[in-house]
């Protein structure tokens, strides 16, 4: 057993883990942050995407010990300080970018990573960026629309 300490959604956390404990397991089981989903256990679906030190990472492919000292952001950390939906989350809701919701946390986290890197992505760039995220319900059209709407709103706020 090893003790790990990291900052998750702005709060310092620590816990004892086995060396083989995945980051997604630590988040869900030790910290009770169940918004990060486990879909495939093989890094194919993207439901487990979180940000580690500002980069999107599939939490099913990273050991909790590898996140020692890291800044981790989960879907729970995407809400506004008052608990209301963040810009990207609200855009997914408004533009029907979700159906069953299983892929949504990973999609939102991937979208946030994309918009951090490219404030005004084209439809093609969005679709290419989401290649590591699988949605079995929406057909992606409304997810793309939601990300475009979030980009537009974020750019408007930044210009003010």
UniProtKB/TrEMBL annotation:
Listed InterPro entries: 2Fe-2S-bd, 2Fe-2S-bd_dom_sf, 2Fe-2S_ferredoxin-like_sf, 2Fe-2S_ferredoxin-type, Beta-grasp_dom_sf, Diverse_Oxidoreductases
PROSITE patterns: 2FE2S_FER_2
One Pfam family of this chain: Fer2_2
2Fe-2S ferredoxin-type domain segment(s): 2-78
Keywords, ordered alphabetically: 2Fe-2S, Iron, Iron-sulfur, Metal-binding, Oxidoreductase
Top-level taxon: Bacteria
PANTHER family in UniProt: OXIDOREDUCTASE WITH IRON-SULFUR SUBUNIT
Name under which the protein is recorded: 2Fe-2S iron-sulfur cluster binding domain-containing protein
Species assigned in the record: Algicella marina
